Amino acid sequence: MIKYNIAYAEVATHSKYFDDVAEVSKDVAITELDIVLKNGDIVEAKNWKWTTQKIKDAKPALEAQLKKFNQYNPNVNKIFVFKEGANGTLPLEIKTYLESLGAIVEVLT
After folding, report:
1. For residues 77 and 37, what is the distance between their CA atoms, to the nearest angstrom?
2. Predicted local distance difference test score (pLDDT) of residue 85
3. Which of 52, 58, 77, 103 is buried deepest, with most CB atoms within 10 A?
4. Cα separation, 9 vs 34, whole angstroms
5. CB contact at 8 A, 81 and 37
6. Is the dihedral of CA 63, 106, 53, 24 positive or negative?
7. What confidence tens digit (pLDDT) does each residue in 3-61 have?
8. Is the pTM of this model over 0.85?
């Protein structure tokens, strides 16, 4: 759990989001929301190491997560923020896939 909390903290304290964060690690009936912004947008922080297997496993997992976010509130943006660096670069395949499902994808370096 500590690894995930670090990802939340890095995104929540980033200058792009800091002033807009309302809640961090909010439990709701159907899922956990990493970050909720003041306007209600949901931010999902990811710090994944990309391997061939991870790419294969990521699509159904991300789609299921996005479906839960939409069940919780279909009227807000769902923003997936990926941390890059030692874990590698976000595969274009994953970015394109999430965008095709209606998510906003951002990358922090």
Report:
1. 10
2. 64
3. 103
4. 10
5. no
6. negative
7. 456 676 788 887 788 888 998 888 888 888 888 999 999 999 888 888 888 889 999 99
8. yes
How far lies 75's CA from each of 45, 50, 69, in Å? 20, 30, 10
Distance between CA atoms of residues 83 and 102, nearest Å: 20
What pLDDT is stored for residue 78 in this prediction? 97
Beta strands 42-46 and 31-37 are antiparallel
Contact indicator for 101, 63 with CB cutoff of 8 Å: yes
The token duo for 18 is: 């800091």
Neighbour order of strands in the sheet with 42-46: 21-28, 31-37, 42-46, 78-83, 104-108
* pLDDT digit string, tens, across residues 70-85: 999 999 999 999 987 6
Token pair, residue 77, equals 């943006």
Query: DSSP class of residue 47?
Result: -
